[in-house]
Amino acid sequence: MVTTTSKTDFFTAEKMKTIVSFKLLNLQGRGYHLSIAAHMNGKKIHLLIDTGASLTVFDKGRFEKIAEDAKIDENKQDATGLGTSNMKAYEVVLKKFAVGKLEVKNYRIGLLDLSHVNKSYASIGKKPIDGVLGSEFMKKFNAVINYEKKTISFSKK
Fold it and tell me: What angle do CA 132, 24, 112 make, to 5 degrees?
């Protein structure tokens, strides 16, 4: 059975479960961020898991270097959040987006300027991020975060 919603094709297994390890990034004793490896159109990327982010977004500048031929659409609404006021937002459809063994085709994401996040990361000796895995993805795939095991599981009912 293939489930489709608004031009997005999801994996085909009825009851598939994918478990992916994540890293806890210590923010100099002021909390943690969850870091996860993913793949976009076959290229490895570095994302933060952010249950407070409404949507999955990638840094526009880093995205353009990785996916030079992608068709980027301007979003009519500016984005808010991520520690800034309104900012210009864009959208793009990823041909393939994979987190662990969970592969999603034709997945629409947002693009924003996340350079302020990467500057903050650089100031504390952390690697830059390519984007943020948002709550729409986690809700769609029933994500469960296990801090003790440092894993996140995804499943489709």
Answer: 15
- Token pair for 124: 């504390």
Domain ranges of the chain: 4-155
Q: Are 82 and 89 in contact (CB under 8 A)?
A: no
DSSP label of 130: S
Rounded CA-CA distance 24/34 in Å is 5
Strands (E), the chain: 4-5, 8-9, 17-21, 23-26, 32-40, 43-49, 57-59, 73-74, 79-81, 84-87, 90-99, 102-112, 131-133, 144-146, 151-155
Which pLDDT band holds residue 41 (cuts at 50, 70, 90)? confident
Summarised one tens digit per residue, pLDDT across range 63-86 is 999 887 778 888 765 555 544 456
Q: With respect to CATH, is domain 4-155 assigned 2.40.70.10? A: yes
CA dihedral angle for residue 58, residue 61, residue 62, residue 67, rounded to 10 degrees: 90
